[in-house]
Amino acid sequence: MKDTVKSLSAYQAELPVKVIKEKYGLKHVSRLSANESVYGPSPKVAQAVREVSDDILGYYPDGQATSLREAVATLNQVNPDNLIFGAGADELIELLTRVVLEPGANVIVPSPTFGEYAMHAQIEQATTKKVPVDEDNGHVNFEEMLKAIDDKTAMVWIANPNNPTGVFETTDAIQNFLDKLPQNVILVVDEAYYDFVDKPNATVAPLVSKYDNLVVLRTLSKAYGLANLRVGYGIMQEPLFTAMQAVRLPYNLSTYQIAGGTAAVLDQEYLQKNVAKFQLERKKFQDFLRDNNFKFYESQANFIWIKVGETKKVGQSLLEQGFQVNDRLNSDWIRIALGTPEDNAELKLAFLKATNYK
Ligand SMILES: *Cc1c(COP(=O)(O)O)cnc(C)c1O
């Protein structure tokens, strides 16, 4: 076995709501721990999946995911031959790492950020340099990221908005960084939470045609409410595109994923309606945090990163009050996804109770 794999431990998935209800005798649990959408997907998704003919079950799916490719290309105004699909953005993260990193290489990430980047680097026998975000406002420290680059650096990852901080970096800031990056270093901008941003020009996707070292990732798991279907995609040009096509498994998306994913992408009205709800709830919850003098980072995602101190105690209290949040990422900061307006109203009271433990 690879040495770098021996020290890894399995991802600790969320406890199922049913288990929590039984354990704490709760009637209702709001699951706010994994940044899923409380509104779920467009009803057109289930309809499209149901309409897939049973006759296809014995045959491999369309390895090019043609209908999904066309819908995504139109949506993003990109060339269909710039798109790679995967079972969630997670699969793209795994594949990119696999394609780019040689043993002994390093990657650079802001800290904190999504754990998958460093985990996959480790599997490929590469190391990760973590550059702390600005303690005051959570912004990525681009200057320090540049300083961290050495001749073994092969990739830089930026989740935008970042997870778990929720902080958004402008397209200008990223392009400026990209211009200073050595051309042999790949920059992946993971836009898993892009849909929740309420600022103009929030994506760097239009830059992919100008920079062959830029990759943009997207997922249908968050704003589209489709975490269970497992659909994500990457936007990239040559030479990465051909390498990724060669390395990915030929039938990595089933016909159900392709049909459901296509229906989701085509129903932009449903998406935008839910995004507007999240944006309003985000504003209300951040106003509440400000009014009560909590330290948090201005979020452009569907979750908020809040400094509470003694995270585990706060998380446990919230759990017993029926709110499942993420208390496993940091000992001082907690990540809470936004729920329905009703849940969020109750969450405020529960949160005040939980943070008054002192
Ligand atoms: C949730 C998330 C993903 C992965 O989503 P998939 O469900 O695998 O599509 C990727 N990046 C970030 C930053 C995320 O938070």
Descriptive report:
The structure is a single chain. The chain is of the alpha/beta class. The chain folds into two domains: 3-41 and 268-355, Alpha-Beta Complex (Aspartate Aminotransferase, domain 1); 55-266, Type I PLP-dependent aspartate aminotransferase-like (Major domain) (Aspartate Aminotransferase, domain 2). Helices cover 38% and strands 15% of the residues. The protein has 13 helices and twelve strands. The chain has helices spanning 3-6, 17-24, 43-50, 66-76, 89-100, 116-123, 142-148, 171-180, 240-247, 255-266, 268-291, 311-320, 341-355; strands at 30-31, 83-86, 106-111, 127-132, 153-159, 186-190, 214-219, 232-235, 295-296, 303-307, 323-324, 333-337. The strands form three sheets. Strands 2-8-7-6-5-3-4 form a seven-stranded mixed beta sheet, with helices on both faces. α6 links the parallel β3 (106-111) and β4. α4 (66-76) packs parallel to α10 and α5 (89-100) packs across α9. The protein is globular, with a radius of gyration of 20 Å. The N and C termini lie far apart (47 Å). The model has no long low-confidence stretch (mean pLDDT 96). Pyridoxal-5'-phosphate binds at residues 35, 88-90, 114, 159, 163, 190, 192, 219, 221-222, 227, 232.
